[in-house]
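tokens incoming
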């Protein structure tokens, strides 16, 4: 097997000769450069050294004594470093050159592409011309590293990263190792691939996977809705032409709330002594 075919993997090579800028390593048939910046120790001719083979910015097969957590056929969570809308996103695996996760492996809508700092679970793949690319983990791969949730986890808060996204919902892998699904009705907006999100477990399936909601719990949601309504009131000098008698369509258009949620939030504001109603108007209560 040629050294080009070993790109994306770890191998042991011998130091053939030293140079001012590094070491030339050999497998007995081919040489490859270990640049001095990629060597973590002084080496002598004849030394055996374990290296990771990658393709440098000039397109040449090169070696590094930095062994990434990831390799061809081995998966890991890696961080997004940059994005190019024409070709895809770039990932840092610990080498001088970032790895491309190509546009064909990313969601159709660029609004849910990973952003800098997001984490994606990938492996490496080698193209026909021996270039390294990233490949997203599939459901079976996520399943193989997941653990089963039990009934005691029901209604618990969880955090995790989105590993797959679609219009119908998003798939999450949590810090605890649970594999989960977030239905589109359980999120206010579609999270990005690789985004870290926090939600709560609303169902545990027979196979131990979970359903997650990213929506606030009712009491939290009520507080947030009340705060939004109050801020709107203040922005209108303490008066608004909305009350618990307003039409559902008007409430939805102005606040994005159902009439039931609006009434609960308004009721909280009145109970807290912050507002009062007169006719079809609501006013901020003055001290």
């Amino acid at each position: 097997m040629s050294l080009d075919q070993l790109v994306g993997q770890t191998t042991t090579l011998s130091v053939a000769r030293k140079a001012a800028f590094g070491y030339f390593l050999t497998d007995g048939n081919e040489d490859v450069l270990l640049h001095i910046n990629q060597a973590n120790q002084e080496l002598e001719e004849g030394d055996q050294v374990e290296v990771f083979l990658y393709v440098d910015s000039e397109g040449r097969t090169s070696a590094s004594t930095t062994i990434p957590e990831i390799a061809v056929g081995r998966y890991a969570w890696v961080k997004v470093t940059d994005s190019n809308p024409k070709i895809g996103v770039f990932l840092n695996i610990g080498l001088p050159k970032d790895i491309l996760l190509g546009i064909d492996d990313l969601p159709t809508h660029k609004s849910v592409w990973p952003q800098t700092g997001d984490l994606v679970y990938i492996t490496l793949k080698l193209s026909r011309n021996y270039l390294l690319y990233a490949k997203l983990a599939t459901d079976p791969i996520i399943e193989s590293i997941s653990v089963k949730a039990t009934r005691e986890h029901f209604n618990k808060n969880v955090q995790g990263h989105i590993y797959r996204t679609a219009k119908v919902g998003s798939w999450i892998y949590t810090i605890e190792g649970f594999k989960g699904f977030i239905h589109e009705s359980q999120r206010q907006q579609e999270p990005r691939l690789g985004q870290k999100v926090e939600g709560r477990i609303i169902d545990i399936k027979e196979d131990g996977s979970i359903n997650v909601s990213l929506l606030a719990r009712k009491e939290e949601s009520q507080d947030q809705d009340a705060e939004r309504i109050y801020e709107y009131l203040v922005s209108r000098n303490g008066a608004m032409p909305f009350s618990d008698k307003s039409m559902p369509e008007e409430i939805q258009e102005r606040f994005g709330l159902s009439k039931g949620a609006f009434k609960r939030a308004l009721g909280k504001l009145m109970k807290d002594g912050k507002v009062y109603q007169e006719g079809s108007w609501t006013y901020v209560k003055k001290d």
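note: The radius of gyration is 27 Å.
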